[in-house]
Amino acid sequence: MDSSDSAYYSSIEEDLKVRKPTRPRPRAERRQRLEIRSPPPRDDKERVKLNWARVIRKAQFSLYKYEPIQEDRTRLMALDPSEDPKGDIHVTLIPVPIAMLHRFPYEALSYHWGESESENPVYVKTGKHEQGERMSYADDDMEMTALRLYVKDNLYEALRHLRQKTDRILVWADGICMDQGNSAELGAQVPNMSQIYSQANGVCIWLGAADKGRRTDRAMRFITKVVETQDIHTLIQKDQVQNWKDLIYLINCSWFSRRWVIQEVALARIATVHCGSMELNWSDFVDAISIFDLYFQDIRKLFEDRSREYHTITDLKPLGAKILVDELSNVFLRGADRRLFEPIKNLELLVSTLAPFETTDPRDTIFALLNIASETSRVSIPRLLLPASAAAGGDHAAAEEVPPPTADYTKNLLEVYVGFVEWVVSRTGSLDIVCRHWALPERTTVAIMYEELVTLPSWIKLVLEAPYGHSNQGINGRKNGDSFVGLPGARCYNASHGMPPTVRFGMKSPRPPPSSRLEAAVRFAGGLFAAAPPKASGRVDNGGGGGGHRTMMTRPNPLSPTSPSSSNSPSNPLLSSPTPLNLDPSLNTSSFLMRGARWIYSQLRGWLLPGTAEVPSSRDSRMYVRGFVLGGISWSSSPMPHGIVTRDALERLGWSPDGSDEYDSVPDTVWRTLVADRGPDGRHPPSWYPRACLRCLAKVTSNGHIVTGDILGESPPRIMHDYIKRMQAVTWNRVIFDAAFRRGRETTEKLIGVGPPGTAQGDLVCILYGCSVPCILRPWVSSNLFTYQQDQRRRPIVGEKPDFYEFVGESFVYGKMDGQAISGMDRNELLARSEDFCLV
């Protein structure tokens, strides 16, 4: 059929106006899982939409424009009363000195912004409208003469709920009291939020409007019943199943997934929970959730014969509501009057423990916690009396050189994250932060005041790969194993034998010495060019440690062949006096080869010179760390999902069943590796672990796998239960690997361990100085000498030196977790094996 025939038949279809009939499709199966519940839209949303087109034409001429305020001031909102619960909202914004906040009887609002558009008008009174003129949709002219702000549905409903019938009240809400379009004001106001929330008469937690089925109303009433009952077992009955489900529905509200709410509640003297028309005290909510968690396993049994989506919840601990209840009780020391006295936790600990909480702007991963961290909080009494520099001091001398993070919204996400990691390493003398999954991912689209998107490096681990993922995923169960490095200040291992980290960040350092591959290329090109390169104005390296290069060490490294000062900027003979090669005299400068060599040399030299990088410093994601290769991965299992330890993994660990029905011993490599040689408390495993492991091995399936979920479902004895829970925390979605260290063609040592799911043959097991566990690195060679992008790199061939490394993740290596890899070498061998790794 030619094109004319096709056009002819197409025209017939159009003339006849035929359509393909809709026929029944096979019934689809829907995945049963719980999702975070967003706030419901306004109940009168249709009326808003009908008026929106009419209003928007005139609204652009009457938008409220914020007057600039000083850094030591904020705005309070005077909310006008209304007897009509659905009447328009009228406010007056009042600039107030931060130091005078305690004199104003205001309440601070804590809420989730939600995903709706900002299309709800809030009428802001100015001097022209202070006589109480009524403005409504009915009076078009009066409505359009008002100055207005447009807010999202959830804030609009919250203001309607808080509004009184006869009295004007004072409220602080960030969506109105802060100019959200002014990055400078936002950065200046974020530190003030500690005073705003701590000085408020109360903090009102708005969970959203009631759902249509009134489940949230029932849950709020049930919370009161849970707190008041003297015998909780009277509520753990089948006739109470729906009440417990409604409570889960309530705490699955999106407010419990937001990062900013952490500081808002932590700073509050008194907090109340509001949902629909219902209210209760935050303390009652905390008690109800704690009781729910205490008896959860008994309550969960009530779900077994009913909805599968609720039965998938195996634990309340990863839920945002439970994390908040646990963590907020230990954020501040308080006085007898409930006023804040002193923050307890440091910033690194807060970022690590509160990682699942989300925010629209990922830079708030750090910024949202500054006001409640011990190094950066402004609310504690002693710190209010100290200069800012002294109040921010850490417990480490290096912290004076690297100041703690501040809320700076002019920086891109990479700058914020790199600055945080640099400060943590400097302050603690530990590299463990690169193993924790703490970071929120980059946005997918730009936005107002978020014009630059960046690519994050592999050594900044995302919370998506955390044990329970982000807050939207935790309610559906475990995703990955627990972190081997543990929480800050509570490390379980010492693989680097106390060696301090040697770290350099590409964003804040000049270019490193060239690799051997680049060195050869530069010398070759330089020889062809046969001319001295131009001097880099004022920036030629003379070994004096200039150029901003910062090597962060907690104490002098005994393995460093030079002092820190001389190692800061290693001399580079390629940049000062390249050595021309002996070339064929027939070559001349007009030849094609000579012109090519001239271009190659200029490009390579530009890549090597400090300050002439091809990547802007604000987007340079490289980190240089020192350590040594422990071995290369020769085999790895598939990831072990859902706690299923496969037969091939068990055999690699050393389990060799002989087909008999009885076993009286289990190799150490098996039972210790499956639990990472630690108990759940991070201490050495209890003496009964081998017996518990043996009992688990006696219950392998016909295919030789340990299916931990099935064993737990049989309600096993306590020792098996505890061992399996620890096994799940170690092996879930991880791999078992074999590795070996080779010197030449000789294999000197074989290794066995547990690694992250991406571990593959050819990866390297490395000890990085300052890191408490071994790490898996993936070597890469750049296909283009000037980039390390994924589409322009390849794996090195045998004997080829890598240009950079991908940080795959942390690992457990049997027999190498307490410094044995270093203590087993003398100084000369350790010096010979130590090298710098460029992580990207």
From TrEMBL:
Basic and acidic residues composition bias: residue spans: 26-43
Pfam families (UniProt xref): HET
Domain Heterokaryon incompatibility: 106-264
InterPro entries in UniProt: HET, HetReg/Transcr_Mod
Sequence segments annotated as region (Disordered): 1-43, 535-582
Feature: compositional bias, Low complexity: 556-582
Name assigned to this protein: Heterokaryon incompatibility domain-containing protein
Provenance organism: Diatrype stigma
